[in-house]
Structure formats: C-alpha cells, structure tokens
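Handout, tutorial session.
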Amino acid sequence: MPDGTPDGAEVFGLRLDLDSPLSDTDWEVLSEDEGARALCYRQYADQVRFVRTRAALRRLLAERLECSAAGLRFVLNHYGKPGLLGACAADPVLHFNVSHAGDEALIALSRRGPIGVDIERRHPLFDTAALESQVLSPLELHASLPERPEFLDRWSAKEAALKALGVGVSQYLQQLSVLLPPAGDHYRLQSEHRAWPRLAACRLPAPDGYAAALAWTQPRINHEFIDTTI
C-alpha cells in the first residue's frame, strides 16, 4: 500500500487461472443468485473471474466479520454497487470493492468509509486516442503534459473514485478530472459536484501489463469547488 492510504484499508491481489476448472468449494459459498449470474456468462473466462473473485471476497469478509462466508447477503445501490446487508458481528462497518481484468483481480476492504478499486489491462493495440473525447474532462484535455497521467492510469483512477462514490461510472467519467501532482503516487482529483464527498486516489502497484488504482472518500471541509491533493 502506498504511503498516505487511510488506516484500516487493505487491498488483496488474486491471480486467476482462466483455463482451470472451478472448484466446488468456490461454488458452495456463492448465493443462488450469484450462481445463476455466473452461469449466464457466455465466456468461460468471465465465469472464472466472477466466481473466483466473489468467493474470495466472501471469505475475506467472513474472516473479518467472524461469520459464515456462504451466509453473507449483499444489497445493490441504485447504480449496482454491492454492500453488505445486515450485521454479522458486533462491528459490522466494513466497506469493500472489487475489480478484475485479464487474469488479475483486486479486492479492497475498509473500515473507515467507502472505497473503490480498479485494475485495467494494458492492450498494446488499444486505441486510447479514440476514447479521450468520451472519457476526459475539459480540464484534462487542456492540462499541461506534466499533469497528464497515462491514459489507463487515469482511467483506473477515475473508475476507482466513482466506484468509491457508488455512482454510475459511464455517466460521470467526464465530470471528474484526474491530474498528477508534482511527485508521488497520489492523484489530484477535481469535480464540480458539490454534493459529492471529497475524494482521494492513488496508483497501486500492479503486475506488468496492468494499471491499478485505489480511491476513498474523505470528510468535506467546505462547500467550495472540490480539489483534493495528497
């Protein structure tokens, strides 16, 4: 974890073998709805990503909350972000988020507040220029070169931040700006949404060929234009 990440936040990496059979022990901890969702994936690799990541998430949450992994129940917010339904222990406040791409997955846990995580695979033939007008904010498009993160680094930070907020990613990509401070692994985030809490995000160490980021909410200090720098 980079310096400056909040106390109580954890990130776990999961290497996925996309060709190996799924184990019965993974299927057994999923709910009936999760099992049905997994079977709807047409590509076996997508099924593996979902089943193994969700099973690992359940085990981590159950360990922290001292309850049964199979007994956990999730509820979705308006934008589809899952959260825990009900309490499994005396201290039930546990936020989480997951992301997977290629054969890698990340699981983030936090006891201090909402958290978001994202991992993206760097495809050598990926046409980032064609997406910039759909992803970047006006501020980002006109930022100086020293302030511009590489496209997938910026994308992963945006997605992690929007997931921390629990809002729709596609609707708000252009309404959140991700810039680089002079040094360090932390990004500078700007948004004009006054109802949003303050946000912080940082680059996460990632395997070769991947970009990853972690984001979390911070207490609001005023109602001015949000400009979070760490």
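The second record follows below. Compare its token runs with those of the first.
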Amino acid sequence: MTSHFQGIKIVEAELRVVSLPLISPFIVSNQTMTDKVFPLLILRADGVEGYAEAVMDPFPDYLEETIPGAMAFLRDLILPQIVGKSFSSPAELNQLLAPWRGHRMSKAVVEMAFWDLWCKTLGVPLKAALGGVRDAVPVGVSIGIASISETLDRIAVAQQAGYKRTKLKIAQGHDLALLEAVRSKFPDIKLTVDANTAYGLADLATLRAMDAFQLDYIEQPLAVDDIHDHAIVQRSIETAICLDESIRTPADCRKALASEAARVINIKVGRVGGYEAARAIHDVSAAFGAPVWCGGMLESGIGRAHNIHLASLPNFTKPGDTSSSIRYFKRDIINEPLEAKDGMMPVPMHGAGLGVTLDWAFLDAVTQSKERIAP
C-alpha cells in the first residue's frame, strides 16, 4: 500500500511556565527544591496536540541551561521557525534544530512534543514508535539528602512499596557514615549513590571506601565535563561508575565507554537533546555491553510519561527514576495516575502518543505564565 502521509502542519505553539509544589523539599549536593518549576510546551496541529516538558532549572545548578534562557530561545528563535510549517517526521524537524549550538534541553522539549503529536497523528503509542519492547518498566526511588534516621525511614517505605532499587543522594561529609547505617539495616537491597559532581580526585580514598558497601554503581562523582578523571577513578575502584551530567551526546557516550570512564550510563532524554540522541546513546551503550537506565528530573506527569516510554527500549535493564508521582506531588497536571506496583511502572497507553491527558483546570491553577506562538 502506498502511503499518502504528507506531514504534520504545526498551526500553533503554547509555552507555559508551571510551578508544581513538592510534598517535601528535595535536597541534593548543590541545591534544595521546594517546587518543581518547568516550561511546558504544547504543539497543536489540526485537532491534535503534542505535549512535553523541559528539564532545565531556574538557575544553572544542574547544567548550564536555565528557564529564562530557554524561554527566550524557544519564543524568539525556535518556535517561530516551526509554527506554520509541516514536518513528515521527527528526523525532519531535527534538521531544523541541528544548526543551533547547545541548548539541548530546549531542543529536546520541541522534539519530544513533536514525537507525541506525530504518534497521535499516526495512531500509535509513543513506545511503539521509539522501538520499546516492554509494557512495564522496573523503577527505583531516589532519596534526597536528609538525616540518617529519616533516610532509613524513607528506605523502609520504599522497600514496603516494592521498589527495585534505592538511590541515595550523597555529598562530602554525607556519605560513608550514611552508607554504613543503611547497609547495617538493609544488607541486601539494590543500592546506588548519586554524588551530583560533589567529589574530585582528592577524594579518591572516600570513593574507594565505598567499595565496601556493595553498591550497584556510583553516579557522577566528579565534574560534569571530566570524562578523563572519571577514567582514573574507575581504574582505582571496584564499584562501577555511572555517568549522568557528563553524557550530553552519543559521542560523549562512546568516548566514556571506550576510555573505561564508566560501566553504566544514565540517559535523560531532556539532557541529551531529544529522542534521536537518546536512542543513539542507548545503541552505543548496548554495543559496548553497558546497561542503561532512565534518570529523572522530578518531572510532572508529562515528563514522567515520556521517560517511561523511553525506558521500554531493550537496553534499559537497570531500574530507572520514574517512581510514582504521588511520592512528589499531592496533585499532578495529568488525569491518569502514574503509579508503580511492586516496583514496576506500566507504560501509559491511554490512547496514541504519550498516553496521558492534561488536567487543564489544575494546570491553569499552577501556571505562572502562558504565551501563544502563531504564524
């Protein structure tokens, strides 16, 4: 049968900044969050909408991109270039985004919203278009910095809920004593730590001491731009290193794995610029025999649903960060609950595309600003 698909004409874009209150503050080595603030993009075609949320923070505390910079980049440059035009596939849209340097999180939100729009137009789930193979994905919890006693209580709750992996945020001075206490009470759980770049080569003795705690991996111990020194650390410790912030492109992934700077890769679709890059990093990692998992950025239901679809790909063999929304938000901006059961998160399949729908009344209540971009 000959296809007559002529592409999708984007007739309008809506760009919001949303502030969603967290149930409790989320503390990592370099910041404390009380609200999840994020840009939400809605792309509209003829009777169809595509949704995505961006993952940059208000300030450059994770990577360089910020919400004010992203809003200007999207409003003044990217969205006026795509509104009013037709695209036959995400790959064709990416050709327009590719010439602009950096701004991967901003590019990702456009590409991801178009993937949702494209899949809805074709009548297929996002998982199927991406090449996913699972109907549910294994998930773990990420526990922010807190007192040791509070951390132990949080782990107990997560274990009761059946989560497949516990990840602890660590920082200098909040590491070995914490691990000693956790392993004393929970000797057999799958345990990882995330340093969010808090250490350096001068801390090699501390990192080496973590070998005693049977960690599945140590995530991003060193600087965001330092694959070389991660290789030095990986040669010096038994525990696998997992890279997050350092992996922005498929080339970064290849260099890190070829130089043995890491044995595990965290893929965040927003960090790497969209699904095209995320799938390439997935494939490069598989070629090196390195497992991947899907990291989280405290996303609302829209971003969380995107992550779950991505994590259905074959090489996502370690539990990801897409735990139940109710752990973070009293109320989400989507109508369908994204809740894990026994550590497994079902891929949302309520219709084609992303498989979730917006709770418009609540979304309006937590929207800080709204802009419309039309031809």
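Points raised in discussion: The mean pLDDT is 95.
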